[in-house]
From TrEMBL:
It comes from Aminobacter carboxidus. Its cofactor is Mg(2+). It is found in: Cytoplasm. InterPro entries: P-loop_NTPase, Shikimate/glucono_kinase, Shikimate_kinase/TSH1, Shikimate_kinase_CS. Pathway: Metabolic intermediate biosynthesis; chorismate biosynthesis; chorismate from D-erythrose 4-phosphate and phosphoenolpyruvate: step 5/7. It is an enzyme of class 2 (transferase). It catalyses: shikimate + ATP = 3-phosphoshikimate + ADP + H(+). The keyword Kinase applies. Catalyzes the specific phosphorylation of the 3-hydroxyl group of shikimic acid using ATP as a cosubstrate. This is Shikimate kinase. ATP binds at residues 33-38, 139. Binds 1 Mg(2+) ion per subunit.
Amino acid sequence: MTPDAQTPFPEGSVAALLERLGTRSIVFVGLMGAGKTAIGRKVAQALGLGFIDSDHEIESVSRMSIPELFERYGEVEFRALEQRVIGRVLENGPQVLSTGGGAFMNAQTRAAISGHGVSIWLKAELDLLMERVSKKQNRPLLQNADPRAVLSKLMDERYPVYGLADLMVATRDDRKEAIASEVIEALCSHFGVPGRIHVSEGSEDHE
């Protein structure tokens, strides 16, 4: 069966992957700007799964933006809320979940992800991250005179922990469909599902 825009994968491959996945969630981890939400949406669309962004879920639950939560309660309280929200979301798999940059640093959150999902680290180089995050002003940890130095320090601190994820896919300045295809191929390899499959462009994202 040849993939097309409506059916981006051979039906049997998708079915086999979903069967192996069971009730587990596909969980994206990585630094801000790595593309966890954009790639996560593409993967979810291709596999016919629901998509949840943990930051959006936290904002919905708290009725406050992430910067407001940081300012009012501080990072420690924010991480505790993040841990509770992600833990609750993970009870409802299978789905695709993108997490905030600091979420995987929390040992309890890592344990919850390990118990209820398969984690994928989207690894990006500093220049790419800077290019992306500089376009947005809603990054509390980068409200600093030298955001590049802050981001570089976060990479030094977090990349060894992100390395504990089940899978790693290098992201870059390329089509989202190309990265999403590599993610799904990594998942197929992880679960022993044969075949080489690609994400087609299909419908546009709504972010």
